[in-house]
């Protein structure tokens, strides 16, 4: 009997899962993807988008032609909840039944957890929402005409520390390009116990290399920092430190989207989904999750809470694991598993790219900005988008 597999979300995890399931199932079952928009946006590009001339169409593509080629049904709807007992998906104007559900909604920025952290009022964002990032780009242009002190960083319970670092070094390059690098005070605020911890225990690299680089750029670093409040023109820390700022960008904590967070017995206290090593829910074996919607245990305990980041590779691995196990369940084959430590290693693999790009033993500080100057980021975006766009032609291998 033909079954229906519903995938909620069409970013790294959802898109990858849909493509792999279509190949594994070969048309034997129905696959539907539900998302509020059909565009696949290369989210890592948001870290440098505010500084360059790329447009949305250069960092995204419409997924519907790929889904059509693979026999996948795309439904453009907003999901607002689930009934796990009756196996229903609630959307704005229609309910959908599923036999297997894969939730790949990602997570949402929890700006409300810190007083005043509400882009685009007292701070600026590079998280998830293209419209917000576009406002950050416009603010940066205005800032360059009347520059002042800057605060960049990641808040308590944040996880995407690498985004703050990459945004910081893009910003430094453009300050240098405008000949104002030594005229602008820069503060880096992070809940990490040391630089390049990244929420995963570091990269087997001496943090002193990063500290030295920060010193060369005269960046004032605030470690183990908890943000008390963000005001217009100021960032206040819990220890009473007040930092003047004319441009503030803070990576916030993340939590599950409302549809997940409000569904009974689905998520943890942060709105994220706990899964087994087969990437299905412990109580509902036909409900799977992958990517930013998954709750990953934090292996490191420090003074200030840290979350575990998600990267595109780790999200894809979760999605492939879930897809294989859905197919295995349908075909009566043995399941596959992946451990939390293996996920950590995939995260480290992605982090290693940035580590090699920035934190090296440079002869002088300007060498650290060379990769940005050469346009490698735009080339990486273009190459990556082409890989995803060509998914229907086996560009994404099943491994």
Report the CATH superfamily of the largest domain: FAD/NAD(P)-binding domain
CATH fold group of the largest domain: FAD/NAD(P)-binding domain
N-to-C order of helices and strands? EHEEEHEEEEEEHEHEHEEEEEEHEHHHH
Biggest sheet features = 5 strands, parallel
Shape: globular
E-strand count? 19
Summarize the structure.
The chain has 399 residues and is α/β, with parallel strands linked by helices. It is 31% helix and 19% strand.
Tell me what you see in this structure.
The protein is of the alpha/beta class and 399 residues long. It has two domains: 4-48 and 58-109 and 254-297 and 308-351 and 377-393, FAD/NAD(P)-binding domain, CATH 3.50.50; 111-252 and 353-376, FAD/NAD(P)-binding domain (3-Layer(bba) Sandwich). The chain contains ten helices and 19 strands. It has helices at residues 12-25, 64-70, 130-145, 161-177, 207-216, 258-261, 312-331, 340-358, 370-373, 376-389; strands spanning 4-8, 30-35, 39-41, 60-62, 73-76, 79-83, 88-91, 95-97, 100-103, 107-109, 150-154, 186-190, 219-222, 227-231, 234-237, 242-244, 247-251, 254-256, 287-289. Strands 5-2-1-9-19 form a five-stranded parallel β-sheet. The protein has a four-stranded parallel β-sheet with strand order 13-12-11-17. β12, α5 and β13 (219-222) form a beta-alpha-beta unit. α1 (12-25) packs parallel to α7 and α7 (312-331) packs antiparallel against α8 (340-358). The mean pLDDT is 89.
